[in-house]
Write a structure and sequence with these properties.
The chain is an alpha/beta fold. The protein has ten helices and eight strands. It has a single domain, classed as Alpha-Beta Barrel (TIM Barrel). It has an eight-stranded parallel sheet, covered by helices on one side. It is globular, with a radius of gyration of 18 Å.
Length: 267
């Protein structure tokens, strides 16, 4: 089962805001939705899906296990809670949201618990998020490359994560890009605006197309129906080598997601 190239992100969206976002996204054609235990919106998303009329079998749902639930004693019970909130008997992908800070819970134990969740049919695939090269190497050694469906990491025109991307490609591990639009900063970027004008596109479409063209999946979020619809069209946009080179020059290792006490030592 491959990871959809385009999905809806729901970070920071709660209550009626996320219900409306999911409802609109499903209405305009999204079929992949990304959430996490720590987002506090799984129940809202479950409600939106239930009310949408879109069959569960048509959807690809991802959730992420929070650091407090990485131990074998907590992981599966917490995932069952997530499933109850999402009103489903399984998710399609379950990720380790962040590596256990300071290695408090050994990665081997978490991966074993995730594998057990998969064996029980609670999740179709498993993977990781915010894993560096050493952590990804360890995960591959413990679980096998074929078991790691994706590593979901921050990738934007300003943080292109090239070392990690090269390692993942070499290992055959798929990457999912989050914060591809850099909290909306990309939409205002003059370089992206120039490329967008050339293609009769939007800067957001250009940034998303740049990520898609490198083989990454993207999960942009929006609370506006017109933006949700517009972002989807990035999949139809083909950037030239010149466009890609211009965006490559924007890289400045500008990381937006690095929570203190949680984030690993970045590559």
């Amino acid at each position: 089962m491959s990871i959809p190239s385009f999905g809806l992100g729901t970070f920071r969206l709660k209550g009626q805001t996320v219900i409306d976002s999911v409802r609109n996204a499903l209405d305009v054609g999204y079929r992949a939705i990304d959430t996490a235990q720590i987002y506090g919106n799984e129940a809202d998303i479950g409600q939106a899906i239930a009310e949408s009329g879109v069959p569960r079998s048509s959807l690809f749902l991802t959730t992420k296990i929070w650091i407090d639930n990485l131990s074998p004693a907590k992981l599966i019970p917490s995932l069952r809670e997530s499933l109850a909130k999402l009103r489903t008997d399984h998710v399609d992908l379950t990720l380790i949201h962040w590596p256990s800070p300071g290695g408090a819970v050994p990665l081997a134990e978490t991966l074993q618990a995730l594998s057990e969740a998969k064996a029980q049919g609670l999740t179709r695939q498993i993977g990781v998020s915010n894993f560096t090269i050493p952590l990804l190497r360890e995960a591959i050694a413990l679980a096998g490359r074929e078991q790691i469906a994706t590593n979901q990491v921050e990738i934007s025109p300003y943080l292109q994560n090239r070392k990690l991307a090269a390692f993942a490609r070499e290992q055959g591990v798929h990457l999912t890009s989050y914060m591809t639009l850099a909290y909306g900063k990309a939409v205002q970027d003059p370089v992206l605006k120039t490329i967008a004008e050339r293609h009769k596109a939007t800067p957001a479409q250009v940034a998303l197309a740049w990520a898609l063209q490198q083989g990454y999946s993207v999960i942009p979020s929006s609370t506006r129906r017109e933006n949700l619809q517009s972002n989807l069209k990035a999949a139809e946009l083909r950037l030239s080598d010149e466009d890609m080179a211009a965006i490559a020059a924007l890289d400045r290792n500008e990381r937006l997601a690095s929570p203190e006490g949680i984030a690993p030592q970045w590559d």
